[in-house]
Automatic annotation (TrEMBL):
Protein name, UniProt field: G-protein coupled receptors family 1 profile domain-containing protein
Domain G-protein coupled receptors family 1 profile: start-end pairs: 43-296
CDD domains: 7tmA_TAARs
UniProt main location, coarse: membrane
Pfam family, one: 7tm_1
Domain of life, per lineage: Eukaryota
Protein's membrane topology: Multi-pass membrane protein
Transmembrane segments: 28-51, 63-86, 98-120, 141-160, 190-213, 243-268, 280-303
Organism: Xiphophorus couchianus
Family (UniProt): Belongs to the G-protein coupled receptor 1 family.
Amino acid sequence: MDPSELCFPEAFNSSCKKKVSLHSVNTLIYFGLFFMSLVTTALNLLVIISISHFRKLHSPTYFLLLSLAVSDFLVGLFMFFQIIFINGCWFLGDLLCVLYYVVSGVLISASVGTMVLISLDRYLAICDPLRYSTKVTTKRVQICISLCWICSVVYILILVRDNFQQPGTFNSCSGECVVEIGFIENITDLILTFIISITVIMVLYGRVFVVALSQVQAMRSNIIAIKQKQSKKINVKKSELKAAGILGVVVVSFIFCICPYFCVTLIGKSSLLNTSTMTLLLYLFSFNSCLNPLIYALFYPWFRKAMKIIFTFQVLRSGSSGANIL
C-alpha cells in the first residue's frame, strides 16, 4: 500500500486508510462546508446580537429564538472539525474524538429541547391567549432554557461515560474516531430525543394549526362589524398567528433535517462517526442551522431592520437598544 494512502504513514501496520476520492470532489466538499460554516456562524451571530441588543426583542418567544441561534452558531463553528475529518482520518487524538461526539450530541439535544419549548410557547399563545402573559414570563423561559442546556450536557455525558474511561478503545486502527453507546442507552436516546420529542412537537403544532384555522375563520366572519377596541385584539391575534406560522416553518425544516439521523439509529446502526453515512447526516443537521436565520430574514421584518442597523453601525450609538424594530 502507498504510504500516502494512510492516515499515519509512520505507523504502517496500525494506521487507517484514507478515503479515496477525486481531488476535485474533495475541493468542492471543502469549499461547500467552509462556505456553509461561514454563512451559518455569521447569520446566527446577527440573530444573537439583534435579540441581545434590542430591548423590544426581550420577550419569551425571542429568548427561545436566541437559544436556538446560539445552538446554530456553535454548529457553524463545529463544522470546522467536520472539514478536517472529511478524508476519514482523525488527527486530534482519542480524547478529542469523544469530545467531538459529546459536543455534537449536546447541540442536537439542546436544539430538540428548544424546539419543544418553542412549540409549547406557540401552543399557549394561540390556544390559551388570555393566560399566556401570566404563564409564560421572561424569567420562567430563561430558567427553562438554562435547564434545557444543562440537562443536555449531563444527558450526553451519561450516554458516553464508558468512552471517557479509555478513549479510543473501540477504534480498530490509528486515525479512526469511533464512539460506541450501549444498547440500552441507544434505545433510551432514541425514545427521549426523537420519538417523544418529535411526537410532542407534532401534537402541539397540530393543535395550534387547528385552533389557528378556527380563529382565522372567526375573524373573517366578524371583520365587518367590529369596534376599535376589538380591532386591536384581532391585530394581536393576527401577529400571534403569523409568528406561529413562521416558527412552524422553522419546526418543519428542523424535523426534516434531523429525522434521517435518528432513522439510522432506529434501524439499528451504531454511532460510528467515521462512516460516510453518519457524516452526511451530521452535514444535513448542520444545514438546518444555516437555514433558520435565512427563514428569519425572509419572514421577519425585525431581523432585516436589525441587520440594517448593525451593518450601518447605528448599533454603536447610545440609545440604539431602544429602537422600535417590531
